[in-house]
Amino acid sequence: MANEFLRLDLEKAADFLAKHELECLHDQVSKAHDMLHQKTGAGSNFTGWVDWPVNYDKEELRRVKECAEKIKRDSHILVVVGIGGSYLGARAAIEMLTPNFRNLKGIRDKQGT
Questions:
Q1: How far apart are CA 16 and CA 13, in angstroms?
Q2: Rounded distance, CA 25 to CA 38, Å?
C-alpha cells in the first residue's frame, strides 16, 4: 500500500552513495516498513497517521475546504492566536505556504501569497 504514495529516487545521490551501501540498508528499511504498517514494535500506538492518505474523514476535509474558501473570500487578514503547541501547526503551515524571501518583496508583490 505505501508504494502507491511514496517513491524514492536516489539517482542524484549516486555520486556519494555507493550501491552496496544502499543494499546494506535494504533489509533494515524493509523491516522498519513492515513494523510500521503492521503496527508492531516500539511506538506502535503512535502510528495512526500511517493510513491517513486513504483513511480520513472526507466530510471533515470538505468542511475545512469550504471554510477556507469563505475565509479567503471574506477576509484580507487571518489572525491565528495560540502559544506553544497550539501555535506550531499554524506556524508550520504558514512557513510551508510562504514563498522564500517574501519579506524582501514590496507590499503589492506580497498580495496573493
A1: 6
A2: 20
pTM: 0.50
Query: Distance (Å, rounded) from C-alpha 71 to C-alpha 65?
Result: 10
The sign one gets for the Cα dihedral 76, 60, 94, 85 is positive
Q: Give the separation between CA 101 and CA 109, rounded to whole angstroms.
A: 12
Cα torsion 44, 6, 33, 37: sign: positive
Q: Which residues contact 90 (CB under 8 A, 6 or more apart)?
A: 80, 82
pLDDT digits (tens, 9 = 90+) for 39-80: 998 998 888 888 888 889 999 999 999 999 999 999 988 888
Q: Is 100 helix (H, G, I), strand (E, B) or coil?
A: coil
- What residue spans of the chain are helical by DSSP H? 19-38, 58-74, 85-97, 107-110
| Per-residue pLDDT band at 2 (split at 50, 70, 90) | very low
